[in-house]
Amino acid sequence: MDQPPRELPHPSAPNQSLDADKTGLSKSKYLAGLQCPLLLFHKAHSPELFPGPDAFTQFRFDQGTAAGKLATGQYVGVTIPAFPIENSVELTEKAIDQGEKYIFEAAFNFQEIHVKVDILVNHGNGHVDIIEVKSSTKVKDEHIDDLAIQCFVLEGNDFDVDQIFLMHLNPDYLHPEGSLFTLSDESDAVDERMSDIPENLQTMRKVLRASEPPEIGIGPHCGKPYECVLKPVCWAHVPELSIFNIPNIRANKWEFYSKGLITIDQLPDWFKGKSYQKPFLDACRTGKPVIDKPGLKAFMAELSEPLYFMDFETMQLAVPIHTGTKPWQQLTVQWSVHTLKKGKLEHHEFIQDSEDDPRVPFITSLLDVLGDTGSIIVYNVAFEKGRLEEIAEAFPEHKPRIDKVIARLWDQYLVFKKFYCDAGFKGSNSLKNVLPVLVPKLSYKDLDVQEGGTAMVEYARMIALPEGEEKQKIKQNLLEYCKLDTLAMVEIHKVLCAGDLEG
Ligand code: SF4
Predict the structure, then answer these.
(1) What CATH number does the domain located at 6-206 have?
(2) If we measure between CA atoms, which residue out of 398, 408, 319 comes closest to residue 359?
(3) Do residues 265 and 285 touch, judged by C-beta distance below 8 A?
(4) Distance 74 CA to ligand 1 centre (A)
(5) DSSP label of 454
(6) If you measure from the C-alpha of residue 363 to the centroid of ligand 1, how many angstroms do you get, rounded to a whole number?
(7) Which of 120, 287, 394, 490 has fewest C-beta within 10 Å?
(8) Would you kindly state where each structural domain of the chain is located, as residue ranges?
(9) In this structure, which residue's CA is closest to atom 3 in ligand 1?
């Protein structure tokens, strides 16, 4: 069952690609067209606007590809080379005629639409199943459209599509026990979607044949189902601070936007916002931070010395490699702790620099540093608490000490969620938004690693490297990044304690 797939040789054929035809559709263009006609137009006519994925997105893609290979590895079959497209269609026909049971990347054209099927199950006599492989841990609505357009093209080629499956990662899989993939029969859901396709295609073809881009304004579709890569272009007219920064504003913002109201000062006086939006609106309107000093004081009074400022970095693997871990589990690989006791600051840190399971060395080194008393300050407690609970469950011998650590956690994020709002936070209380306002002298800008996505990519690169200069350099960059996270919390704490807060 786990033989590698065979790849069919190319027949000689002209090197032509349907993608060169701007009016042709592919599966990805069809899905883009469903999200936004303007996105579809630019995908076909302005490829230069699509610079390709950033390092973190590419890292996620690569993880998906690795999962996909394992999925197809469950079957014995042939793989159709993707290019040239016309050859791939011809090779698919041959493979079907030759009675190949499982055909990977099977390619089909119909009405100028080109699709590839991850796994085509050929039952003979024109009967087939479609299996689409995704590295997500559940079926998403957009997957149904993906399957539906494949089914449409296959039916256009006179196939009887018996069953349509989505194969995704099993969220309950615990390495190495059980099945890594779940096969979900989506035939009924696809059936319901099929009747929309002819009209969708008609609209999309009109868009593709037009000489000018369609006039589409920004809207909820810019983030659904995917964050659109053209946002920097289409959203260029929206100022840095706008109605879109109002916390949890949801539907209201599009109502305002449709009336031409974009900035906070354009909002009507009657709009006071919900209780959790009011401080932000007041801070924007007055230009001064809104601080609930008594609330903040009482919250700060919960702290007891010594203070431990703690932050974790994690790594996510689509395909788990460590015993007892799940697909995409956040694996704790690094921590930083700054300790503040009687005005004296100390720093401790840990990073796992090999591909071995990091969790036990991570937790034992951390528990040694955290001692038995004093508050442990984190930023957005759900993350650190969740990771600690996972380790406690996987390694119950550490649970009693981990439970005591959890009981000492104190969330600095809540200061800004509940008691302190500045327009400069731009409606987000993330550390990266709060720090430049409260402690402008401290910045991530000079670091080689400046945010979590890059940290994860660099971490994956570092652990795969043999000992040497490059490995040490990346390790150092990652340590500095995590250290700055906890130092930022220390400096914010000092500002909060200074007692001369405006408000
Ligand atoms: S940013 Fe929004 S309006 Fe612009 S192409 Fe993307 S989805 Fe369409």
Answers:
(1) 3.90.320
(2) 398
(3) yes
(4) 39
(5) H
(6) 44
(7) 287
(8) 6-206, 238-285, 297-497
(9) 218
